[in-house]
SET domain-containing protein (Exidia glandulosa HHB12029), 376 residues
Amino acid sequence: MSSSQEPGTGALGQMSSSEIAALENAFMEMLSSLEGESAAASTTTSKTRNAATSSTPKAPANEVKLGLRASDVAFPSGNNVYDHSPFAPFNLDEKVLKDFVPPQFMTVGLADGAKSLAAIDEFTRRSRIPTLRKDNTAPSHDDPDVQSMASCIMGFGAPGESYAVVFCDPLTRQFLRAHPLFQKPLCIEPHYSSIPIYIGSSNVHDNGENGKGKGLFAARRIAKDEVLFREPPLMIMTPETSPHIAMQFDKITSQTMPARTQAALDALHNCWPGNDRFGRVRTNMIAVDLPTRPLDRPFGGCFQLVSRANHSCAPNVSFGWDYRTFQGSLITDRVIEAGEEIFISYCDVHASKAARREEILRKYRFKCTCTRCGPD
Ligand SMILES: C[S@@+](CC[C@H](N)C(=O)[O-])C[C@H]1O[C@@H](n2cnc3c(N)ncnc32)[C@H](O)[C@@H]1O
């Protein structure tokens, strides 16, 4: 996308899904031809190295390093925010976002609550989530009942295509509908064949009879402060999930989530008894903040890649989230060697060992025996 285009009017933003798929294939082909060139040439430009690093194991054409096929990825590359050229995979087009001033809903309150409730979209209607108080009045944002009474479900992404499902309050729904990326295609950045990590059998997570759990590994030596990838969440959950939603979670998500997003969610690990999606979501949620909520009560997001990262109290990457781009990312805290497992932290690394262990056991059902905690 050229930087001279107007915000939100990029050519990719107006493309149909089949056109985006064709573009995907074209990029795959261009990428493989570049990889071929870079192997043949004794010298490469720094831009080409960016796209096809000589130390990176080469992915055969049409096969991605992550072991995923394009059809497995809920959010393939291709939107109107980033330049998907492999020459500039991480260059954010700031022009698209520069005029976006998030509405200050926190201070405005739900003055137009009735209007916003009238606009609750078909996801909410179809799943029959109550959006009014029992006395038929609109809930206000600070109403203690609002969390259970006014849950909304909405899709954020390309309509009819891949989109993230968001369980939230009406205020957040209003905010997301005002977001410049509302109804725009979401994507993984850079193109998934260029992501310098792969999903492999974990060095720390034993799945019992099912064998090793999964984890993320560096596909090449990765420098400090490198953004490994950016990806939109499969799902965002309000922290106050009503029993109404929890009990019907499988049914609601089956009715509202695109098939690709469902498949990606179902592929994630579940550390809770049973095989329901709610357990899967609880296992894989990571804090993502939206300006409609106080920072100490963030939403939880489930991601295709981020949620594969195992825990260490001495992590080598940090999780980043930007609600403006609607993407989570992993950023290296130090140099990571090829083949090394990538770890984030699931707890407060400044807490005592006992407190860290207690939190991890309670939330994720394993005893942390990382390099910092040791085996005992
Ligand atoms: C968000 S998932 C991480 C990805 C997961 N390993 C997989 O196979 O998809 C969290 C779960 O991974 C496992 N896990 C994560 N870090 C671990 C560690 N340091 N030691 C043992 N198990 C761990 C636990 O079962 C935890 O509930």
About this structure: The first strand starts at residue 152 and ends at 157. The chain is about 30% helix and 15% strand. The chain has a mean pLDDT of 70. The domain at 70-97+148-364 is CATH 2.170.270.10 (Beta-clip-like).
